[in-house]
Design brief:
alpha/beta; Rossmann fold; nine-stranded mixed β-sheet; 16% strand
């Protein structure tokens, strides 16, 4: 029963609806919602990052104001003051100051929870390396106060950030402070200095050493990927590691309903018809809605990146970052996510011309979020749009008016990541009816079931990461499969390079429709936030028994 774990705190640097940069911002709030649905109280502790105004509900004397908010049954303790109130979640100019200040606030919230009217947690769940100092301070409080609380450390993506003794001193911790760590099934008393030496200075290894249990987001990323957790941090941590999948609260029917409520009348007027199928939505999206984004969209959060992009825009871009619609319809592949080396964007840019040689009217719409460190990719992305104006559009920033429309209009979702611990974007692609072309890495290896192995139960195709030729073939072949489902023609099978895929299409011309249904079913049954919360509860119980 869930009531054996009554109260969970989570610490994170980002969480919607207050401050979200990437996929991490989805996990703490949605995982907390899943816990609440199972009868567990959940509280998220995070910096305000300047997003909260008004009178604070609590004061941590000498540390900062605390604002209490609630979102869908989840309590938020948003800590402000000093660097914690500065905008820019991961701004390098203030990041370490934020980390140090945040760790002190978490320490004080745990130490003084009774005086502050907060319920004692059974579990404190620390997300990513920015919470490692908070974990250290919480351990000191636990030992000093003899609190019956357990600690879980969550690695979403290895950054291999380094922690030095100088960082410890700057954070206000005594390197010679003794405390207990769990290592190879034993309890060891070590100083913070010794713990850092044992961690080889790696923040994530230190977090795993200090926690009672650490988790990541997929079995493959934990155990199999050559650059994954145990292969990077050390197999001596194996007995402390586990995994908790991410999820999505997207559902096909509700996503379609949302899109139709927003676009039905314009689409009917543009297309001159009352009944709108998926093919109609694709035509409306490509020829009309894409070029009519709401004013103020797409929204680039970082002002510096926004100015850099404004200098690059030229037709089919408008000066404000909006784009012109396409002049014709065609098979549509989409990609979403942060602009980062990890996402394999440069591999996709190499693959696009190869796809267009085979499918001249293919369309690519990439809805990407510019973030710190993405500057080198901006010009190549814009240049690709300008080189292939009839085939490619890149939307830089947040574009809510067309984001879900793109998903329910598409034929294929592309996830060419070089490494991908999990891949929430792939869940969003699948649950809106898109088979996925995905690199066979991390969570993508587990989320996507290869059609060539699973037949009509499949949800996409796996490709070798970093290979643009294989990526291009998979995109082309899957586009052709989906086109065959539109037309019912088996002749398209002759154009497919993969013999297994061609044979599947030849024997079942409507296999594309089956793949859509399988993709939706797999997500809605296996990758919900309630399922993720159940996995988290099993981890919590394993260290509380």
């Amino acid at each position: 029963m869930a009531n054996e774990i009554k109260n969970v705190w989570m610490t994170t640097f980002e969480a919607k609806p207050f401050a979200k940069v990437g996929g991490l911002g989805e996990v703490p709030p949605n995982l907390s919602r899943g816990l609440v649905s199972l009868g567990v109280k959940a509280t998220i502790i995070m910096p305000t990052h300047g997003t909260v105004e008004g009178r604070p509900q609590l004061e941590l004397e000498g540390y900062g104001p605390v604002y209490i908010r609630e979102w869908k049954g989840v309590k938020f303790l948003l800590v402000g003051g000093g660097p914690l109130s500065r905008p820019g979640v991961y701004d390098p100019a203030s990041l370490k100051e934020k980390i140090y200040a945040f760790s002190k606030c978490v320490e004080q919230l745990l130490l003084k929870h009774e005086k502050l009217g907060l319920e004692a947690p059974d579990i404190v769940h620390f997300h990513d390396w920015h919470s490692v100092f908070a974990l250290l301070r919480a351990k000191i409080v636990r030992e000093a106060e003899n609190l019956p609380v357990k600690f879980v450390y969550h690695i979403h993506l290895l950054t291999r950030e380094k922690i030095s003794l100088n960082d410890v001193v700057q954070a206000g911790l005594n390197p010679e402070r003794e405390h207990v760590i769990s290592y190879k099934g034993k309890k060891l008393k070590v100083t913070i200095r010794e713990a850092i030496e044992m961690s080889k200075g790696l923040a994530e290894r230190l977090g795993a050493l200090e926690a009672d249990k650490f988790v990541t987001v997929s079995r493959t990323y934990l155990r199999e990927d050559k650059d994954g957790i145990l292969n990077s941090l050390g197999w001596d941590l194996e007995n402390k590691g586990s995994y908790v999948y991410n999820g999505t609260d997207w559902r096909y029917e509700s996503s379609l309903k949302e899109v139709l409520e927003k676009h039905r009348e314009k689409a009917k007027e543009f297309l001159g018809k009352d009944e709108l199928g998926r093919n109609d939505l694709r035509r409306y999206f490509l020829l009309k809605a894409l070029g009519e984004m709401s004013k103020g969209e797409p929204r680039v959060l970082d002002e510096k990146l926004k100015k850099n992009l404004e200098q690059l825009y030229a037709p089919p871009y408008l000066p404000d970052g909006r784009v012109e619609s396409f002049s014709d319809d065609g098979p549509l592949a989409i990609m979403t996510g942060r602009i980062a080396a990890q996402k394999g964007i440069n591999i996709l840019l190499e693959a696009i011309p190869l796809v267009l040689r085979k499918i001249g009217n293919a369309k690519f719409v990439l809805l990407l979020l510019p973030v710190w460190g993405s500057e080198e990719y901006l010009e190549p992305l814009v240049e690709t749009v300008r080189t292939y104006p009839e085939n490619v559009r890149v939307i830089f920033g947040i574009a809510p008016s067309i984001f879900k429309l793109a998903h329910v209009s598409a034929d294929v979702f592309v996830a060419p990541s070089l490494w991908e611990p999990f891949g929430i974007m792939a869940l969003e692609g699948m649950v809106t009816g898109n088979p996925i072309v995905a690199s066979k890495v991390g969570g993508l290896k587990e989320i996507v079931l290869d059609v060539r192995k699973h037949g009509t139960s499949g949800t996409g195709i796996h490709v070798t990461p970093g290979d643009p030729i294989e990526l291009a073939q998979a995109i082309s072949d899957l586009m052709l499969v989906m086109e065959a489902s539109r037309t019912g023609s088996t002749m398209i099978a002759t154009k497919i390079e993969d013999a297994e895929l061609a044979n599947l299409l030849f024997t079942n011309p409507k296999i594309g429709n089956e793949l859509r249904k399988s993709a939706i079913k797999r997500v809605e049954q296996e990758f919900t936030w309630t399922k993720a919360a159940e996995m988290a509860l099993n981890v919590y119980r394993s260290i509380c028994n």
